[in-house]
Amino acid sequence: MGIKEFAAQASISTALSYINGNPEKNLPRLMSFINTVMKNDTSFPGPRAAITRVVNDSDNNMNHLLCNIIHDIDPSIVKTAFNNFVVNANLVGWEKQQKVRQEYGCNVPWTILMDPTSACNLHCTGCWAAEYGNKLNLSYEELDDIIEQGKDMGVYFYIYTGGEPLVRKKDLMRLCEKHSDCIFMSFTNGTLIDEEFAQEMLRVKNFFPVLSVEGDMDATDFRRGDGVYSKVIQAMDILHENHLPIGISCCYTSKNIPSIVSDEFIDEMISHGVKYAWYFHYMPVGNDAAPELLPSAKQREYMYNRIREIRSTKEIFPMDFQNDGEYLQGCIAGGRRYFHINANGDMDPCVFIHYSDSNIRKKSILEGLCSPMFMQYRKNQPFNSNHLKPCPMLENAGVLEEMVNSVNAHSTDLESPEPVESLTEKCRTYAKNWSETADDLWKKSHHIPYKETHEYVMSRAQYEKEILPKLNKEIEENSQPKV
């Protein structure tokens, strides 16, 4: 550990030691301290400005959520999350990532998604992971090596997908234990969480489960099987009783909107201890996909507005992987902020896009990030200047097909390879229908005028001249705690 990391972790540990007793009073002081430490740091000024506003507004619902997290979650887990996520994954990690980006001219991710196994104890309708079959696994040694390579590049945040990752419980806990400086998140159907596993989570402190639900009992059991909803609720209650963090993952389709964001559903999730939610747009991936589950333009517009309403009124933080593209300047795949490694070792640019020219059993992670397929992403991002149309597959028909064919990437679906032309065709009508609505929404919002280049926003010099001073001024004005 370097001097900078040690000093930051020691300071945050000291700060956290006194906010636990009175977060309402001391969270503003902690944020003021972080802003002081980062005064000359240009990393993440936008999020810091937003968080600073929240912690100094006692009436803000997100302020209440932060205080609830401090009260509800085991203090040792809160401390670990701050050290590993705030310090390592962001402050320390970002600096390392930038050095690799500059040296190799490639994308370097903030997080890596990986499938420990393709096996699953459920078979959900429309699940993209089901296309891989159930016989593939990354060995413990391979998972460990991915993390070691990632940390060398500044990646301290890892997300497990699948398959059902908790089929590999013991190996996942071993990795948490060995890499105690990292944060591990896992998407899971929740049916394998029991009291014994909750105790393991309390022991390692750096494992965060995200449980999949599709709305109420009828909607969840329709997609995932009879009785699954009750098992998920039981898992939530076990986690809640043990003061462990809980997130949910929700796939929205033409069949479960608006129930999946109803007040009744959101309030029930909050009552079971859920603190955050990932919302994912249904993707028609795989030869057995059901395009009729794609939301209409009107339904997606409803989700756009409803997620923002929930964020401003409820004590839960929802994120919409597709509709929040405006906050991340478009597509984050291809290593720009993340990429996906399947259970066969293939490096997919996106968890939803299964075409690759690299495998970890033949290339290093860095070699994969410099491969033709990943460089196509870097060259062409953002795929649209309207970041409500971020995806080269879903909203920009033909772009993915052109990239895949230009580098002769292959389908990584080992059960039933899907021609990229077929996937493109399934999305063409959707892209056309969504485009007009997306353009109207974009025009109504207030945005920095992004340029259509892989530099995303503007030159670094222009950003530091025009945008950064305003954000830093806002941070300074809001950073003095209220007495």
UniProtKB/TrEMBL annotation:
UniProt xrefs under PROSITE patterns: RADICAL_SAM (PS51918)
Keywords: Iron, Iron-sulfur, Metal-binding, S-adenosyl-L-methionine
Organism superkingdom: Bacteria
PANTHER family: RADICAL SAM SUPERFAMILY PROTEIN (PTHR43524)
Statement: the UniProt record of this protein carries the keyword Ion transport: no
Molecular-function GO terms, alphabetical: catalytic activity; iron-sulfur cluster binding; metal ion binding
Domain Radical SAM core: 106-320
Protein name: Radical SAM protein
